Amino acid sequence: MGRIEGKVAIVTGAASGIGAGVASRFLAEGASVLAVDRAPAPAPGTDGARFDSLQVDLAQPDAAARIANRCIERFGAIDILANNAGICDYRLLEDTDDATWDRAIAINLTAMFKLCRATAAVMKARGWGRIINTASIMAERPYPSLTAYTASKHAVAGLTKSVAIELGAHGITANYILPGAVLTGITAPLIAADPTLRETYDTMGVVNRMAMPEDIANAFLFLASDEASFITGHGLAVDGGALLKM
Ligand SMILES: NC(=O)c1ccc[n+]([C@@H]2O[C@H](COP(=O)([O-])OP(=O)(O)OC[C@H]3O[C@@H](n4cnc5c(N)ncnc54)[C@H](O)[C@@H]3O)[C@@H](O)[C@H]2O)c1
Question: Which CDD domains match (predicted)?
Answer without folding.
Answer: SDR_c
